[in-house]
Specification:
This protein is an alpha/beta fold. It folds into two domains: 102 residues, ornithine cyclodeaminase, domain 1 (2-Layer Sandwich); 163 residues, Rossmann fold, CATH 3.40.50. The chain contains nine helices and 14 strands. The strands form two sheets. The chain has an eight-stranded parallel beta sheet with strand order 8-7-6-9-10-13-11-12. A six-stranded mixed beta sheet has the order 2-3-4-5-1-14. Helix 2 packs across helix 3.
Length: 285
């Protein structure tokens, strides 16, 4: 047995404030392009002496050092939410045409809260956010709503995807999008599908370009224009025209993220987050 930190779900947002998650995923995507032309799985499971079990079966991801024996258990859903948020910020920086962003988030819970916090922290020019959350999902936390207000970002709750998406040039789907199939994306919008499921048929039909974070998995949107890593590395020009609808289909959210997990581990240790627990020596890998 080994003793590792266990990061609890409510500790994921404060740990995230201690790292530059978008910079971490950019470094990862460019590294993969240089190393193997982006052919590897979404978010490597091994780097140096650190390994990651994504935890798809037990609800926890386990990061551990093969030599030190130290590591961290963290909610797998929390790691996916952080990775989705960091990739959403990266996509916004690459593909938003206007310097003023009006954001629509279709979904609720931790994934929506993390992406809102990361967008507010790392994407300048956001003027307004509309959130359409499914019934039963918690509302935007009071501290996050206060941070948005302090940053001059308006926040509104919408009753439907159509209302939330009206006039938005950045739309993020963080929940299963079946409820939003009748929603039509505005011309020129950037749509980020971070739901883990197929994007709505209406979005796929309207999309002029489709980008993915990981080509090792088939895109649920069918055709693929390029990888985000190719745009970051300069081998693809990115958005073609201001009025194109650009769809970014995130495929690698469930398959790793050792780069981000390690940064969260460092932040948790520096902030005194997490509680010690005992885990098997094998680490599951």
């Amino acid at each position: 047995m080994r003793t590792v930190l266990r990061l609890r779900t409510h500790e994921v947002p404060p740990a995230l404030t201690g790292i530059d998650a978008p910079r971490t995923v950019v470094d990862e995507l460019v590294w993969r392009e240089v190393r193997n032309s982006g052919a590897g799985g979404g978010g490597a499971r091994r780097i140096g002496r650190w390994r990651l079990d994504p935890g798809s079966d037990n609800g926890f991801a386990l990061l551990w050092g093969t030599h030190s024996g130290h590591g961290m258990l963290l909610p797998a859903a929390g790691l996916r939410a952080v990775r989705a948020a960091a990739l959403t910020v990266t996509a916004a920086r690459l593909f938003l045409y206007s310097r003023v962003a009006t954001v629509s988030v279709l979904g609720g819970g931790l994934a929506a809260h993390v992406v809102l916090a990361e967008l507010a922290a790392h994407v300048p020019g956001i003027s307004h956010v509309a959130v359409c959350a499914p019934d039963g999902c918690p509302s935007v936390p009071a501290d996050l709503a206060a941070d948005l207000e302090l940053a001059g970002i308006g926040l509104a709750a919408a009753e439907s995807a159509a209302d939330a998406g009206f006039g938005a040039n950045l739309v993020v789907l963080t929940c299963p999008p079946g409820e939003h199939d009748d929603w039509q994306p505005p011309r020129g919008a950037l749509i980020v599908n971070a739901s883990g499921q197929a994007p709505p048929a209406s979005v796929v039909a309207q999309a002029d370009q489709v980008f993915v974070d990981d080509r090792a998995h088939p895109s649920r949107a069918g055709r693929v224009t390029a990888r985000l890593g190719q745009v970051l590395a300069g081998s693809h020009p990115g958005r073609r025209a201001p009025d194109d609808v650009v769809l970014v289909d995130l495929l690698g959210l469930h398959t790793g993220g050792v780069w981000l997990a390690y940064r969260l581990y460092e932040a948790a240790r520096s902030k005194g987050l997490g509680v010690p627990v005992r885990t098997p020596e094998s680490g599951g890998l």
